[in-house]
Prior knowledge:
Blueprint: H1 6-20, H2 26-39, H3 57-76, H4 78-115, H5 121-126, H6 128-165, H7 170-209, H8 213-226, H9 228-255, H10 259-265, H11 269-273, H12 275-290, H13 302-311
Amino acid sequence: MQISYSRPLSAGWDRMKKALFQPFDINKWIKVGFTAWLAGFTDCGGGSGSGNNTGNNTNWDEFFSFPQTAWDWLLDNPIWANLILVGLVILFIIISVIIWVSSRGKFMFLDNVAHDKAEIGKPWHDFRKQGNSLFIFEFFWGWFAFGVFALLTAYCFVTGKDLYFTHAPKALVLAGITQMVLLFIGYLIVFGYISLFLKDFVVPIMYKHRVGVIKGWGKFLMLFGKKALPFIIYGLFIFVLGIAVLIAIIFFAMITCCIGLLLIAIPYIGAVILLPISYTFRAFSIEFLAQFGDEYNVFPPLAELANDTNENPAE
Protein backbone atom coordinates (compact mmCIF):
# COMPACT_ATOMS: atom_id res chain seq x y z
CA MET A 1 0.00 0.00 0.00
CA GLN A 2 1.48 3.31 -1.14
CA ILE A 3 0.82 6.20 1.23
CA SER A 4 0.28 9.57 -0.40
CA TYR A 5 0.47 13.05 1.13
CA SER A 6 -0.51 15.21 -1.81
CA ARG A 7 -3.66 13.26 -2.63
CA PRO A 8 -5.21 13.54 0.87
CA LEU A 9 -4.25 17.23 0.97
CA SER A 10 -5.91 17.81 -2.40
CA ALA A 11 -9.00 15.89 -1.27
CA GLY A 12 -9.13 17.91 1.95
CA TRP A 13 -8.86 21.14 -0.04
CA ASP A 14 -11.71 20.02 -2.31
CA ARG A 15 -13.87 19.15 0.70
CA MET A 16 -13.21 22.59 2.15
CA LYS A 17 -14.18 24.35 -1.09
CA LYS A 18 -17.36 22.30 -1.44
CA ALA A 19 -18.37 22.81 2.19
CA LEU A 20 -17.60 26.52 2.53
CA PHE A 21 -17.83 28.01 -0.96
CA GLN A 22 -20.21 25.83 -2.99
CA PRO A 23 -22.36 27.67 -2.13
CA PHE A 24 -21.08 30.28 0.29
CA ASP A 25 -23.29 30.30 3.40
CA ILE A 26 -22.38 32.78 6.14
CA ASN A 27 -24.61 30.93 8.63
CA LYS A 28 -22.65 27.74 8.02
CA TRP A 29 -19.35 29.59 8.39
CA ILE A 30 -20.45 30.99 11.74
CA LYS A 31 -21.53 27.59 13.09
CA VAL A 32 -18.61 25.53 11.79
CA GLY A 33 -16.23 28.33 12.74
CA PHE A 34 -17.55 28.16 16.28
CA THR A 35 -16.75 24.44 16.53
CA ALA A 36 -13.32 25.07 14.99
CA TRP A 37 -12.75 27.78 17.60
CA LEU A 38 -13.67 25.41 20.43
CA ALA A 39 -11.50 22.64 18.98
CA GLY A 40 -8.51 24.96 18.71
CA PHE A 41 -8.51 26.22 22.30
CA THR A 42 -5.72 23.88 23.40
CA ASP A 43 -3.84 23.97 20.09
CA CYS A 44 -2.55 27.51 20.68
CA GLY A 45 0.69 28.29 22.41
CA GLY A 46 2.10 31.53 23.58
CA GLY A 47 5.30 33.00 24.80
CA SER A 48 6.99 36.25 25.45
CA GLY A 49 10.49 37.56 25.38
CA SER A 50 12.47 40.73 25.83
CA GLY A 51 15.81 41.95 24.71
CA ASN A 52 18.44 43.88 26.61
CA ASN A 53 21.42 45.27 24.80
CA THR A 54 23.44 46.23 27.87
CA GLY A 55 24.57 42.70 28.63
CA ASN A 56 26.60 43.70 31.69
CA ASN A 57 27.39 41.50 34.66
CA THR A 58 25.03 43.37 36.95
CA ASN A 59 22.03 42.35 34.83
CA TRP A 60 23.13 38.72 34.82
CA ASP A 61 23.62 38.83 38.58
CA GLU A 62 20.07 40.12 38.98
CA PHE A 63 18.73 37.52 36.55
CA PHE A 64 20.27 34.54 38.34
CA SER A 65 19.32 35.89 41.77
CA PHE A 66 15.72 36.60 40.75
CA PRO A 67 14.17 33.36 42.16
CA GLN A 68 15.64 34.04 45.61
CA THR A 69 14.66 37.70 45.41
CA ALA A 70 11.09 36.79 44.44
CA TRP A 71 10.85 34.23 47.25
CA ASP A 72 12.09 36.75 49.82
CA TRP A 73 9.56 39.30 48.53
CA LEU A 74 6.71 36.80 48.91
CA LEU A 75 7.77 36.04 52.48
CA ASP A 76 7.85 39.76 53.26
CA ASN A 77 4.45 40.38 51.63
CA PRO A 78 2.08 37.60 52.77
CA ILE A 79 -1.05 39.42 51.55
CA TRP A 80 0.28 39.61 48.01
CA ALA A 81 1.46 36.01 48.28
CA ASN A 82 -2.07 34.88 49.19
CA LEU A 83 -3.59 36.94 46.37
CA ILE A 84 -1.17 35.37 43.90
CA LEU A 85 -2.08 31.93 45.23
CA VAL A 86 -5.80 32.66 44.79
CA GLY A 87 -5.08 33.91 41.27
CA LEU A 88 -3.23 30.70 40.44
CA VAL A 89 -6.16 28.61 41.70
CA ILE A 90 -8.58 30.63 39.54
CA LEU A 91 -6.24 30.27 36.57
CA PHE A 92 -6.09 26.51 37.17
CA ILE A 93 -9.90 26.30 37.11
CA ILE A 94 -10.14 28.41 33.94
CA ILE A 95 -7.54 26.27 32.16
CA SER A 96 -9.38 23.10 33.20
CA VAL A 97 -12.67 24.43 31.80
CA ILE A 98 -10.94 25.43 28.56
CA ILE A 99 -9.46 21.94 28.17
CA TRP A 100 -12.87 20.36 28.81
CA VAL A 101 -14.67 22.57 26.29
CA SER A 102 -11.93 22.09 23.70
CA SER A 103 -12.05 18.31 24.12
CA ARG A 104 -15.74 18.30 23.26
CA GLY A 105 -15.14 20.85 20.49
CA LYS A 106 -12.65 18.58 18.71
CA PHE A 107 -15.39 16.00 18.14
CA MET A 108 -17.91 18.67 17.12
CA PHE A 109 -15.58 20.09 14.49
CA LEU A 110 -14.57 16.62 13.27
CA ASP A 111 -18.22 15.61 12.92
CA ASN A 112 -19.03 18.71 10.89
CA VAL A 113 -16.06 18.17 8.58
CA ALA A 114 -16.67 14.44 8.10
CA HIS A 115 -20.39 14.88 7.35
CA ASP A 116 -20.26 18.33 5.74
CA LYS A 117 -22.64 19.71 8.36
CA ALA A 118 -22.94 22.79 10.51
CA GLU A 119 -24.23 21.47 13.82
CA ILE A 120 -23.37 22.46 17.37
CA GLY A 121 -25.80 20.94 19.87
CA LYS A 122 -26.08 17.42 18.44
CA PRO A 123 -22.37 16.54 18.27
CA TRP A 124 -21.83 18.22 21.65
CA HIS A 125 -24.31 15.72 23.12
CA ASP A 126 -23.54 12.67 20.95
CA PHE A 127 -19.82 12.62 21.71
CA ARG A 128 -19.88 13.67 25.34
CA LYS A 129 -18.37 10.35 26.52
CA GLN A 130 -15.50 10.56 24.05
CA GLY A 131 -15.05 14.25 24.82
CA ASN A 132 -14.92 13.66 28.56
CA SER A 133 -12.45 10.81 28.08
CA LEU A 134 -10.26 13.04 25.95
CA PHE A 135 -10.52 15.79 28.57
CA ILE A 136 -9.15 13.55 31.32
CA PHE A 137 -6.21 12.54 29.14
CA GLU A 138 -5.47 16.08 27.95
CA PHE A 139 -5.78 17.43 31.49
CA PHE A 140 -3.12 15.14 32.94
CA TRP A 141 -1.02 15.09 29.79
CA GLY A 142 -1.00 18.88 29.60
CA TRP A 143 0.14 19.31 33.18
CA PHE A 144 2.71 16.55 32.73
CA ALA A 145 4.09 18.36 29.65
CA PHE A 146 4.15 21.60 31.63
CA GLY A 147 5.96 19.84 34.48
CA VAL A 148 8.62 18.46 32.14
CA PHE A 149 9.05 21.90 30.58
CA ALA A 150 9.42 23.46 34.04
CA LEU A 151 12.04 20.87 34.99
CA LEU A 152 13.95 21.51 31.77
CA THR A 153 13.80 25.24 32.38
CA ALA A 154 14.99 24.81 35.97
CA TYR A 155 17.85 22.56 34.83
CA CYS A 156 18.95 25.08 32.21
CA PHE A 157 18.72 27.90 34.74
CA VAL A 158 20.84 26.08 37.31
CA THR A 159 23.34 24.99 34.67
CA GLY A 160 23.64 28.52 33.31
CA LYS A 161 24.01 29.91 36.81
CA ASP A 162 26.85 27.49 37.59
CA LEU A 163 28.61 28.30 34.32
CA TYR A 164 28.28 32.03 34.98
CA PHE A 165 29.42 32.15 38.59
CA THR A 166 32.30 29.68 38.07
CA HIS A 167 33.55 31.74 35.10
CA ALA A 168 33.66 28.62 32.94
CA PRO A 169 35.76 28.65 29.75
CA LYS A 170 34.00 29.67 26.55
CA ALA A 171 34.20 26.13 25.18
CA LEU A 172 32.38 24.77 28.24
CA VAL A 173 29.78 27.54 28.01
CA LEU A 174 29.19 26.74 24.33
CA ALA A 175 28.83 23.04 25.14
CA GLY A 176 26.34 23.86 27.90
CA ILE A 177 24.27 26.09 25.62
CA THR A 178 24.29 23.41 22.90
CA GLN A 179 23.06 20.82 25.40
CA MET A 180 20.22 23.10 26.53
CA VAL A 181 19.14 23.82 22.95
CA LEU A 182 19.17 20.11 22.07
CA LEU A 183 17.13 19.28 25.17
CA PHE A 184 14.45 21.79 24.24
CA ILE A 185 14.43 20.65 20.60
CA GLY A 186 14.01 17.05 21.76
CA TYR A 187 11.19 18.14 24.07
CA LEU A 188 9.40 19.96 21.26
CA ILE A 189 9.75 17.02 18.86
CA VAL A 190 8.54 14.33 21.28
CA PHE A 191 5.68 16.26 22.85
CA GLY A 192 4.78 17.88 19.53
CA TYR A 193 4.41 14.53 17.80
CA ILE A 194 2.33 13.07 20.62
CA SER A 195 -0.01 16.08 20.60
CA LEU A 196 -0.26 15.94 16.80
CA PHE A 197 -1.04 12.22 16.76
CA LEU A 198 -3.66 12.69 19.47
CA LYS A 199 -5.50 15.45 17.62
CA ASP A 200 -5.13 14.19 14.06
CA PHE A 201 -5.45 10.42 14.49
CA VAL A 202 -6.48 9.27 17.96
CA VAL A 203 -9.50 11.59 18.08
CA PRO A 204 -10.80 10.35 14.67
CA ILE A 205 -10.33 6.74 15.81
CA MET A 206 -12.27 7.50 19.00
CA TYR A 207 -14.92 9.15 16.84
CA LYS A 208 -15.09 6.23 14.41
CA HIS A 209 -15.36 3.45 16.99
CA ARG A 210 -17.02 5.44 19.81
CA VAL A 211 -14.29 4.41 22.26
CA GLY A 212 -12.37 6.16 25.02
CA VAL A 213 -8.96 7.71 24.68
CA ILE A 214 -7.02 4.69 25.98
CA LYS A 215 -8.57 2.34 23.40
CA GLY A 216 -8.13 5.03 20.78
CA TRP A 217 -4.42 5.24 21.54
CA GLY A 218 -4.23 1.44 21.54
CA LYS A 219 -5.69 1.18 18.04
CA PHE A 220 -3.46 3.95 16.75
CA LEU A 221 -0.28 2.51 18.28
CA MET A 222 -1.02 -0.86 16.68
CA LEU A 223 -1.18 0.89 13.32
CA PHE A 224 1.85 3.07 14.13
CA GLY A 225 3.86 -0.02 15.02
CA LYS A 226 3.31 -1.32 11.48
CA LYS A 227 3.52 1.99 9.61
CA ALA A 228 5.66 4.31 11.72
CA LEU A 229 7.56 6.04 8.90
CA PRO A 230 4.51 7.47 7.06
CA PHE A 231 3.27 9.05 10.29
CA ILE A 232 6.68 10.53 11.09
CA ILE A 233 6.85 12.01 7.60
CA TYR A 234 3.29 13.27 8.10
CA GLY A 235 4.51 15.30 11.07
CA LEU A 236 7.26 16.87 8.96
CA PHE A 237 4.75 17.55 6.19
CA ILE A 238 2.43 19.32 8.64
CA PHE A 239 5.39 21.35 9.92
CA VAL A 240 6.19 22.55 6.40
CA LEU A 241 2.52 23.34 5.72
CA GLY A 242 2.38 25.28 8.99
CA ILE A 243 5.34 27.42 7.93
CA ALA A 244 3.65 28.09 4.57
CA VAL A 245 0.43 29.11 6.32
CA LEU A 246 2.36 31.39 8.69
CA ILE A 247 4.05 33.11 5.74
CA ALA A 248 0.65 33.55 4.07
CA ILE A 249 -0.81 35.08 7.25
CA ILE A 250 2.13 37.48 7.55
CA PHE A 251 1.66 38.48 3.91
CA PHE A 252 -2.07 38.97 4.56
CA ALA A 253 -1.23 41.17 7.53
CA MET A 254 1.14 43.27 5.43
CA ILE A 255 -1.25 43.92 2.56
CA THR A 256 -4.03 44.86 5.01
CA CYS A 257 -1.75 47.16 7.03
CA CYS A 258 -2.01 44.78 10.01
CA ILE A 259 -5.81 45.18 10.15
CA GLY A 260 -6.20 41.56 9.08
CA LEU A 261 -3.78 40.46 11.80
CA LEU A 262 -5.78 42.35 14.42
CA LEU A 263 -8.99 40.67 13.24
CA ILE A 264 -7.34 37.24 13.34
CA ALA A 265 -6.19 37.93 16.90
CA ILE A 266 -9.77 38.47 18.07
CA PRO A 267 -11.14 35.27 19.68
CA TYR A 268 -13.70 33.45 17.51
CA ILE A 269 -13.50 36.10 14.76
CA GLY A 270 -10.05 34.82 13.92
CA ALA A 271 -11.33 31.23 13.83
CA VAL A 272 -14.06 32.22 11.35
CA ILE A 273 -11.61 34.10 9.12
CA LEU A 274 -9.12 31.22 9.16
CA LEU A 275 -11.82 28.54 8.83
CA PRO A 276 -10.71 27.47 5.31
CA ILE A 277 -7.26 26.70 6.73
CA SER A 278 -8.41 24.79 9.83
CA TYR A 279 -11.07 22.98 7.77
CA THR A 280 -8.51 21.89 5.18
CA PHE A 281 -6.07 20.68 7.86
CA ARG A 282 -8.81 18.72 9.63
CA ALA A 283 -10.03 17.17 6.36
CA PHE A 284 -6.45 16.41 5.31
CA SER A 285 -5.72 14.49 8.52
CA ILE A 286 -8.76 12.22 8.22
CA GLU A 287 -8.22 11.76 4.47
CA PHE A 288 -4.66 10.68 5.26
CA LEU A 289 -5.85 8.28 7.97
CA ALA A 290 -8.49 6.78 5.65
CA GLN A 291 -5.70 5.42 3.43
CA PHE A 292 -4.98 2.74 6.03
CA GLY A 293 -8.32 0.98 5.58
CA ASP A 294 -12.02 1.18 6.37
CA GLU A 295 -11.29 0.71 10.06
CA TYR A 296 -9.76 4.19 10.06
CA ASN A 297 -12.10 5.90 7.61
CA VAL A 298 -14.39 8.32 9.46
CA PHE A 299 -16.23 9.56 6.38
CA PRO A 300 -19.78 8.27 5.97
CA PRO A 301 -20.72 6.15 2.95
CA LEU A 302 -21.76 8.21 -0.06
CA ALA A 303 -25.38 7.08 0.25
CA GLU A 304 -25.53 8.21 3.87
CA LEU A 305 -23.91 11.53 3.01
CA ALA A 306 -26.47 12.08 0.25
CA ASN A 307 -29.30 11.41 2.71
CA ASP A 308 -27.81 13.87 5.18
CA THR A 309 -27.64 16.52 2.46
CA ASN A 310 -31.25 15.95 1.48
CA GLU A 311 -32.41 16.14 5.08
CA ASN A 312 -30.40 19.30 5.74
CA PRO A 313 -30.46 21.31 2.49
CA ALA A 314 -29.50 24.54 4.29
CA GLU A 315 -26.28 23.04 5.50
